[in-house]
Design goal:
The chain is mostly helical and 199 residues long. It has twelve helices and no strands.
């Protein structure tokens, strides 16, 4: 797809109705070029949830050419762009996304952190990615690891169980969902004293 066609499709994406936009996104993905990938990545920066979600779904099918750009988008200053990149990486299921996604549990935005757990559940569909996810969890301090595992248990206890089986002897076993105190140790929740009092 030549740059002129990509520019035309981008204009179409801005002004057409949702069904037509979905068609253009699909067209951009069918014969990916650097330009069409760039347009799809740019869609992750748009305010429209519909467009971002559709672009994330398409980008997740493109594999290696978009892996590094999506990881770079995790550093965006816009929360919804970070959340969209997280979900695209989760859907992609590439083991190399495990560590960057676990790092995103530190994100100050709760919506992004929720998207991370959803992305981690999706990542667990790939056994190799589950092993990488377990390795990434093991690098966390104990309290942060417990927080991460609790979030995973809350969304999908089977996925959490698969991660735990890959961790050293099941160390850092997850508590039942909801057992953690208010706040979180990764994103900067309450102090230790407040958490002890809450228990």
């Amino acid at each position: 797809m030549v740059a002129k066609d990509v520019a035309r499709l981008w204009e179409e994406l801005r002004y057409r109705d949702p069904e037509e936009k979905l068609g253009w996104i699909t067209q951009l993905s069918q014969n990916p070029t650097e330009e069409s990938i760039e347009v799809l990545l740019d869609v992750l920066q748009q305010e429209s949830w519909f467009l971002r979600d559709q672009a994330a779904r398409v980008l997740a099918t493109m594999g290696e050419p978009v892996l590094e750009p999506l990881i770079e988008y995790l550093g965006s200053g816009v929360w919804y762009t970070r959340a969209s990149a997280v979900l695209a990486l989760g859907r992609m299921g590439n083991p190399r996304a495990a560590a960057p996604l676990v790092e995103m549990l530190k994100d100050p935005n709760r919506t992004v952190r929720d998207a991370v757990w959803d992305g981690l559940v999706l990542l667990c569909r790939n056994e190799l990615a589950t092993k990488e996810l377990a390795a990434a969890f093991e690098t966390l301090p104990e309290r942060a690891r417990r927080f991460a595992l609790d979030g995973l248990v809350e969304r999908d206890s089977e996925a959490a169980g698969r991660v735990l089986r890959h961790m050293d002897g099941g160390a850092g076993a997850a508590q039942p969902a909801g057992a953690e105190a208010a706040g979180d140790p990764i994103a900067g929740g309450e102090s230790d004293e407040a958490k002890q009092a809450a228990r």
